Amino acid sequence: MSTTLKQLIDNSRQRLAPLYGEREASWLVRTIIEHIKGWNQVEILLNSDKDISDFMIGEVDKAIVRLLANEPIQYIYGDTYWYGMTLKVAPSVLIPRPETEELVDIIVKAHNDLSDLKVLDVCTGSGCIAVALATYLRFPEITAIDISSDAIDIANINADNRKVKINFLVDDATNLPMSLNNFDIIVSNPPYIMDSEKSSMSPNVLDYEPSLALFAPDSDPLKFYKSIASFAFSALKENGVLYFELNPLTADNLYTWMNENGWSDVQMLPDMYSRTRFMIARKQ
Asked: What burial class does residue 145 get, using C-beta atoms within 10 Å of its C-beta: 0-12 exposed, 13-18 middle, 19+ buried?
């Protein structure tokens, strides 16, 4: 008995909806078909009454089985669309989030009239921030650091795919070399989820994304921020700017620490959900 594309889509959505909800299930099914056939939403609609092959049915089923095991679709297909770019991702790097798009947007809008800025991205992961800034700022000189060599491998691929030049280094955010200095911008989205938050996290994050890039110890949840900010106090040029993505639960404590440790111009900004998510600190 033949199966049309519409029947396959409806069946797949019904399988995914109990776990993901109707809206996300629909998006997931469209994404699966886009990766298998290369069809956009209009092409899917135009082909909805056509019979599909057993091969396609099998490929869709394999993807759904993995999704029902909570595996992120970005890892299933090895890419994600973020800040106008398709980026390679793998289980060695975090899947870039919409909040981090907001952080990049803040930086680009603040500096888009300047050229040849010297930029450092700490805890670069997939390289998403560094690659976006290399793409949208005017001729920046960018260095990006991560402790994971596997992450740096992914970041290098993303830079190559976008044809941007970035100096990637394997190094520890808590012990950055002082030979790196004279930056106009230092930016970081470091590990900031406290271990005590694990119980409230969804399985697709907890079971699949790299814990090295996610978690900071409950005993010192500001560990990475303190190290990077202390380094930045020396490594930034006069009037250079430090940008952080934050954990809203520890943002107030970081603000207090920054003001107690020599930073006099510190701003906290909300994300699209009105949670305190970003910090801007200028060296004066």
From this structure: buried
Residues 6+ apart with CB under 8 A from 47: 5, 39
Per-residue pLDDT tens for 106-135?
A: 999 999 999 999 999 999 999 999 999 999
Rg (CA), the chain: 21
Q: Which residues have CB under 8 Å from 96's CB, separation 6+?
A: 80, 82, 83, 87, 89, 125, 126, 128
pLDDT of residue 284: 85
Q: Would you report the helix, strand and coil content of the chain in percent, each value rounded to 5?
A: 45, 20, 30
Q: Residue 279 in contact with residue 224, Cβ under 8 Å?
A: no
Asked if residues 131 and 164 have their Cβ atoms less than 8 Å apart, the reply is yes
Assigned token pair, 2: 């033949």
Spatial separation of the C-alpha atoms in residues 280 and 106, rounded to whole Å: 10
Contacts of 15 (CB under 8 A, 6+ apart): 64, 68
pLDDT in tens, 207-224: 999 999 999 999 999 999
In terms of pTM, does the model score above 0.90? yes
- Report how far apart, in Å, the C-alpha atoms of 134 and of each of 98, 112, 120, 240 are: 18, 11, 11, 18
Number of continuous H segments (helices) and E segments (strands) in the chain: 12, 11
